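Example S7 (structure tokens).
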């Protein structure tokens, strides 16, 4: 899952930058892509935190 998520984030980031360069960084489309990117990055962060929490619990046993 994490690899697929990283790929989605990279694809969306490139799309957002390209859209921003063509339509402006404050365009409605660019802002929407930015919000989607933020959402995916938040999911990635939650996933990483959960993985670290799980690893820490294993070491404490």
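Recovered sequence:
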């Amino acid at each position: 899952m994490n690899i697929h998520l990283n790929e989605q984030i990279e694809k969306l980031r490139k799309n957002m930058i390209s859209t921003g360069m063509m339509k402006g960084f404050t365009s409605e489309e660019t802002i929407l892509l930015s919000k989607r990117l933020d959402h995916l990055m938040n999911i990635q962060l939650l996933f990483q935190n959960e993985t670290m929490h799980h690893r820490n619990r294993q070491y404490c046993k």
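Notes on this example. The radius of gyration is 16 Å.
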